[in-house]
Amino acid sequence: MNTETAKKFLPEETSLYDLAELYKIFGDSTRIKILYALFEFDLSVGELCEILNMTQSAVSHQLRVLKNAKLVKYRKLGKSVIYSLADSHVKTILDQGMEHINE
Amino acid sequence: MNTETAKKFLPEETSLYDLAELYKIFGDSTRIKILYALFEFDLSVGELCEILNMTQSAVSHQLRVLKNAKLVKYRKLGKSVIYSLADSHVKTILDQGMEHINE
DNA sequence: TAAACATATGAATATTTGTTCATATGTGGA
DNA sequence: TCCACATATGAACAAATATTCATATGTTTA
Lengths: 103, 103
Fold this sequence. Notes:
- 2 copies of one chain form a homodimer.
- By secondary structure, chain A is an alpha+beta fold.
- Chain A has one domain (12-101): Arc Repressor Mutant, subunit A.
- The first copy, chain A, has helices at 3-7, 13-26, 29-40, 45-52, 56-68, 89-101; strands at residues 43-44, 72-77, 80-85.
- In chain A, strands 1-3-2 form a 3-stranded antiparallel β-sheet.
- Chain A is elongated, with a radius of gyration of 17 Å.
- The interface between A and B is large, with 49 and 49 residues.
- Chain A binds a DNA duplex through helix 5.
């Protein structure tokens, strides 16, 4: 095999890097739980804490990661902040992964 | 929102954990490069080193991760070990992710 | 306006993880 | 059989990351 030829088939370095970054975000069960919860309902930070049974700080930190990745968005409602999915594409991706592990 | 109701919509704890583990594997650009290279050709460890421009040890360690996750398989050929994709599903998953980042 | 509440943030810590270095293992050719 | 080659592996190290703790920020309501 001519390895120079094989190199030409690889995507751009930046694409590969970005793709890894995207999957890194899904690579944590806390964040996956948050996303699954948001598939069904828009939820406040406090509600997410109850659902995940985790501290407010831990949840907030992870929400920031998801927010930076533009996977979730938020709106303010009274004293609360309501989070929701930013992108329906995310569900497709996670469903695909779920399908894989259930083979 | 009744958070007890929301909890019922979450997948099993073990599923969520396994899903995170799967994405963790994709969350590294070295492993993604290996997978993309194997989409096109079956390759020996040495060839992968050339293509990725990485040391034999680093590549071998990552191949083990991919092997443990059953994403790649291997066969022996003379002194070499030839790696190939274990599962065509993997390409679908990465393509989906690639589609997302190119939005 | 003061107090109570909801959320965000920064520092510290512990754990995980990717690469390197050194070396072990195993196979084919001379 | 002995050597050269290809790959695997273990320990060490550095970097990244998730959670906790303490506290800051900002908003509502009494």
